[in-house]
Queue: 2 jobs
Job 1
Amino acid sequence: MTDWPTQAERRWAGRRVQRLEDPGMLTGATRYVTDVQLPRTLELAFVRSHAPTARIVSIDLDPARDVAGVRAVLGPADVADVQPTVDILHLDGALKTPRFTLPGDRVRYVGEPVAAVLADDRYAAEDGADAVIVELEPLGDGEPMYDDIPGDRYFHQVAAHGDVEGAFERARHTVRRRLHVQRVVTSPLETCGIVADYDSATGELTCYLSTQQPHLARAALAEAVGLPVSHIRIICPAMGGGFGGKEVMLPEYLCAAVAAIRLRRPVRWVEDRSEALTAGAHGKEAEAELEAALDGDGRLLAMRSRFVSDTGAYSSGIGAYVEFMVGAFTVPGLYDLGGYAYDTGGVVTHKAPLSPFRGVGMTTSQTVREVLLDDAARVLDIDRMELRRRNMVPDGPWRTVLGEEYEPGSWRTAFERALELIDYEGFLERQALARKQVTRPPRLLGIGVSPFVEAAGIGSAGGAGGLPGGSHDNATIGIDLSGRITVALPTFSHGQGHRTTAAQLVADMFGVAPEDVRVIDGDTARTPFGMGTFGSRSGVFIAGTVNRAGEIVRDKLMRVGEILLEAACEDLELVDGAVGVRGAPSRRIPLAAVAGAAHFAPHVRAELGDPTLTATAFFDPPRPTHSNGTIAATVEVDRDTGGVAIERIVVVEDCGTMVNPMIVEGQIRGGVAQGVGLALLERYVYDDFGQPQTTTLAEYLLPRATDLPPIEIEHIETPSENGTGGIKGMAEGPASATPAAIICAVFDAIAPHGTSIEELPLRPETLAAALAQS
Amino acid sequence: MTAISLTVNGATHELDVSPRLLLADLLRDELGLTGTKIGCAMGACGACTVLVDGEPVRSCLMFAVQADRRSVRTVEDLAAQNGDLHPLQAALQAHHGLQCGYCTPGMLMSVAPMLESGQPLEPDAVREAIAGNLCRCTGYQTIVEAVVEASRR
């Protein structure tokens, strides 16, 4: 497969092209699921469990039926034929936690749906939901979550690579760090939602659905409700963010779909914010423990990790797997380890089910590892960056202790450049001066640095690393009679600007401008099968599929050009919306005429054999891409309040060849902001009785404009060997590496007072208490 | 039901509404102006911000009946009739100040009145001004840069 277009032929890729999706969003014209308005739509509201664990004694639906505006009520018996959803882990020894749409026997978390009310509007539906009487018999602490899951642990895996025990025996120093990464909530501004519409004449169910994976959602829905996949159409008109939280087939969606089929009316459910916070896409919560064995020179000999993910009541979709397995796999990061052992798994608890969230697993591993390395440097009395230098892998390709093959990256170059940009040495001098200050209490200044590698664009080959499932992605490119090119993607953009980046790539292939390329995604009826958008995969899969499909169509256009222009293919070019003879501007045929000839000119059709000007092509990358970078942050901690002010955040990022640097920077900044939230602000709290305490955005704190400094970015471009056109997947690295940079900076600031805090986020209360104790 | 009369984007509407109907739902469901988004329905995220008599208001915290005899302006009214973007909209696009676009209408309506004075705005003042508008995608910086630039046109 040639890598086409070449660098010299690129006119649009690499440029800061303004986004084609913006005008619709800026004027309010872009439609999201919640904006879909179909005639005769019924609104759905749920009756939810108010107990974390209880047996359902009775559900009295009748009072809801008398409420004005209520048209139907669904209880467990009404959806009993819907198949329970089960996670997609294909791992030996993984115990299953089937999730019923409306469980009739018992509830396992506060907010679990137990009944559904359909009414003329949401107001009436909620009135109806309030009228339903649910009698619950609370179950005691000793009651297992599931009869067949002993100790509530549904998966556990232990493995060792290299000589771990020997390394710890002969180590000069060992350090250990425990960290509890808190439960957070993905919190896209647009919550989850569905509008389900059943056509009883054709038997087709159309669902407008807020999902990152239209084709996978379609398959999951088909399996649960018993319709053929072909009878379901998923449309995502536009989506207001996902961050991993919109990858699961929710019981709420199944209820809406079943109701639409039964009632022969469109049914709409849009999650409200308190539902999202109580029973929506929670993420991350894990216990992590990491130990390192070092020699007398500060060289890492081996590491041992232990991860336990708090999965919540059900392991669903890809489950918490991506937290605890990716966490365990990504511990080595950019460090040369002779040995590594992990002990990892997940437990079920009476909390909302855990969903993937940007930086899955790697946020936890990156944070605990970098904090531990700082601990080690303090124990050995070595500069923290010097300790990293002594252990960081050399620029270029690398094979980790786990056998993962990194493609070439600028690991060390990015790290050193970040230190230069944040003026590491200068900061240390300023910090030393501040610490010596005698006239008033010394200021608490700190610096943290977090170098990262991000494996992305993982295809079927990822299965070898233990990831469940394969991958299957296609793009379709076609040219219509007006000469316009349409590309249909396997991915689904929900903020990442794929319409623009895909159009840039296609524009270069066909010699047109990006605005002349129509990009379609988010509709199973208009796109070929693809896995959707998650795991920083879209850049790699868009480039790979589009390049292959485009090459087929491009060759066909050139063939038509050969016939019409009576010239050899080598002499032809696609430029300015035409096929032309190189160096002969007068001998050009516009694409519309080329398409017209392929459609209708008998001699052209006869010579072409197959006159189809549309092609669908499949792509599965041989190996993942590896982008990398370093985050450096400086902070000041307020001695009295424990408040953290971030002075600077510097990011050096290398994601290979960039299609649109502006969009790359947007992904970096957004990821950094979420990382700051994790480090300092966000935490989902359950009380000791399993009751949620942070059910509104007044209690659950998301980063605001005043919480963040400007984020300084510099790029390095080490072209990918595994990704088409040198492109590496990116967008999770900065999100997962930022917490470590901030936390290391805070610990550095308070180091004279001790750094034994093990709970995240680093809230003012926690820090003030730690400072007061010392 | 209660009879109300209000002006929305220059057009007068006479409506009978339920006393508990939120202004946000009136705009979206009754008038089809779905550009106004609902992000939290409790005044914490700012996505539903519209102008009422020229002042930014959380339309999820205001009942439709409270808008009786008042003038409401939504995001649909910002761009010119010919489709030309408002300078603030154009600046947001130029600075990549939006990604998923869901917070964008509220962000625009929160900031638009600040620009009318013609006073150049400083970045810190803009950060304060949009501190009540949550964005989960951008990290805010490019929004701040866009507003600052629009204020200096």
Job 2
Amino acid sequence: MKAVGASLPRYDGIDHVTARSRFVDDFSLPGMLWAKAFRSPVASARIVRLDTTRAEAMPGVHAVITHADVPTNVVGHQEVWGIAPDEPLLAEHEVRFVGQLIAVVAAETEAQALDAVQAIELELEERTPFLDVRNAWDAGRPQVTPDGNVFFYYPDQPQRQIRKGNVDEAFAAADVIVEGVYRPGAIEQAPAEPAAALAIPEPNGRVTIHSTSQALYYSMDITARHLRMPMGMLKFVGGTVGGGFGGKIDTKTEPITAVLALKTQRPVKWRHTREEEMLCSTTRAAWHVEIADAVTNDGWILGRKTLTLHDAGAYMMTSAYACSKHSFHLAGAYSIPAVSFNTFVVMTNHVPTAAMRGFGVTSASFAVETHMNRIAQVIGMDPWELRLKNANRVGDSSPSRVVYGNPSTVSTLLAAAEAADVVLPPDERAMTNAKREGALLPAHLVEQQREPVTHPLVWRDNRPALEGGV
Amino acid sequence: MALHRGRGIATIEYPTGMNQGGDPSQAWIKVKPDGHVDVFSGTVDVGQGSKTVHTQIAADMIGVPYDTVTMNNFDTDTSPVSFGTFASRGTFIDGNAIAVAAYRTRQRLLEVASRMMEVDPEDLEIADGDVAVLGAPERKVSVAEVAATASWTYGEMIVGSGAWMFPHVEPDKETGECEPHAAISYASCVADVEVDDETGEVRVTKLVQVYDVGRAINPTLVEGQIQGGAVMGLGLALLEESYPYYPELSHRGPEFGAYAAPGMADLPELKNVALEDPDPVGPFGAKAVGEMANNAQSPAIVAAIHDAVGVWVTELPARPERVLRALDESRQPRRDGRRVIYDEHLSVAVVSTAENRAEGTWRFPLVSE
């Protein structure tokens, strides 16, 4: 074996740094049209009148599309997981966030397209936006969606909930209960390359789409749904992307250019400006996480209750996914035998939020780890000791009852202490990831232990063992 | 004015692959008559270097030099399904699909070589682009000769295909019970900061970071993920915000000049360590490092700020104004019997005016005794 484990030079490194790699915006075709978007200026409004007549008559303009031009306008990013679609590609009777797409122009030059966008006439009846997730249940709050401001995972249960062990007993037995609130903010994915697409109508009726997507098949599926075409009628071209960080899962430029290309029978390119990338495309969500922990004076965490409100923004995108994922990680890298977690997807009039590096878990890690440091402060224990004591070990189980087969909380902590020149006491330095025993297996952690499971596909001697039916 | 130093720690875990699984990847491989290998997979290299890692996996699994392998991920007509480059799944899930395809390609090469050499395939091994008899390494043919013989003499083709998926699971409605991910990675982080108690500015002077990545397929690319993640984590902790007056909408930054992403001047001293505790399911023992690399810094930095100046800033980013406000107010947790209540002013219980605070199976405030 030679390649694996070697710091070989990047496959495309020289091409990237000498500007020879080709990204979507490097492709152009004769007769190609340019797209520019007309977007909502306000966070919440009813659309009273939309008139594109003047724009359509502008020089160089080949098409102006609105929601009526999109075969299936409302498509969801989580339909494959059974979440109902809610987001229109182009706004219909209302807008729910600043920058929401209302119409798109295709013209011979970008300047002509931009001129035509400015000629689109829009009359709005503005509404008060709903912005603070903490007011989701207040009387008289503005409504973001006809179904209210809180998503329901099940018809009778809005939250993703996790329940394990007896939380009431844990809180009754605690020496101290530590409560805190954690609010990591919304931030931009900010890739170097803004989202772009080039759609080319092919003579055989197919459409070729050059895409900056992080997920070609996923974006092709969403585009096919919008176009009401089989996926096989589309060909996505891409695979080399100038940064994504989660933001390029959202599929907007692809279906828009495809609709325009089919309507005009010309290649159509649309590239987000930096302003559109910053103001109109999705962000990492802001989160509100409340934690209450039942703690003993000698540093055991007996139980945890959480309340999370996730600011989904104006449409669902992938928020239900993120909140489930968030919920599974609210115990962090520790074994907590009794938990009660409640996580809510709250709709607001912010720009829809979606994936960003660490999706759903970045907020959980911030909340859980800051809370751990506070617990250490409250009970006067060294934060290394608190962590090493509660660290998940082989045979411990997670809040959703995943059995840890090879956790490395203890080993990463010990390595970090060593690398930071922190000298831990000998009994802490001697800890391992192995199954709990002795003083590290108090009564409250016995019941949560399980036998580690084996997976159907495993690697043996650097070969995949195929009998699992791969 | 005084500069105060502080240190904070954090330990995190992060799942590999999509939450609740069900995200397949597929790959197929053909060998050209000259022995060059073409790998086809619908993956996207977002800059993290997945093409490099996937090429390394294919090269070693087949037993050919890295530079004879071409990675084709250009379009959906030629490349099979990859669910996408997200959820820290590229090395692990795409990598497993490619590894399985490469393993089957290797088996095909051995079959053809076995006919050429009249040796049982079990007694052959492929390494460095040669198929050799086990125990008699001088008896060998090159992969190029095998591929040429297959094409021009036997009229056959050498291909292999593979797929991998962690099956989809649904969590239990009541308890959330399920096994939602293919593997878990771990990390610890130590942050050293300097806090200026007059300006509220926080400077991170050093980050020590340890990641268990299972197996570093390409150590330089792992280091790249950890360094890049550190910078992003720094932005999240101290600088970046889409809504400076969140939840209000005003003053959004429309360009990099009006949005405080970290620059090189913000970069602290970095000391990064990659542990390699092999995962039983990941390719060559690898598991994910991509996303988790920006998760540990913010709690470590917030703890370091507390260590330096004695205040907790739990709304991110911990920008100077928030640090100064916390210093001015020197907020202490409220004590109520056994309860120690931090940040009460931020809580739903205080901000909400909802009268009915119990809905179904949950209620807030969180703990009411």
